[in-house]
Specification:
The longest helix has 24 residues. This protein has four helices and no strands. The chain is flat and about 45 Å long. Helix content is 67%, strand content 0%. It has 95 residues and is mostly helical.
Length: 95
């Protein structure tokens, strides 16, 4: 299953459950990643967690804007594109 829990439905009672489920899913994904990434010079779990967090923040911003039927500011769109294209300088500026 993909997407946000209870997505597609506006259920006020579901919001706290959505947040809890998403938090637990991210925790499980982080734990699985820690076990699946082999040790060595390429092992950078902190960078992986930052990448996941950045991706989740981007998804959240996009979902909120869609729900509000608003378009993103040009600067926000540019930053998202830079972050998704793995621009190291953009990531450092954003953080």
């Amino acid at each position: 299953m993909r997407g946000k829990p209870f997505s597609g439905q506006s259920l006020p009672w579901a919001e706290p459950f959505q947040h809890e489920m998403i938090t637990r899913i991210v925790d499980v994904a982080r734990t699985v990643a820690a076990y699946r990434i082999p040790a060595g010079p390429q092992h950078d779990l902190i960078a992986a967690c930052q990448a996941v967090s950045t991706g989740l923040a981007i998804i959240h911003v996009q979902q909120v804007n869609r729900a509000l039927d608003c378009s993103l500011e040009m600067e926000t769109t540019q930053l998202i594109n830079e972050l998704l294209n793995n621009s190291g300088t953009a990531v450092r500026k954003a953080l």
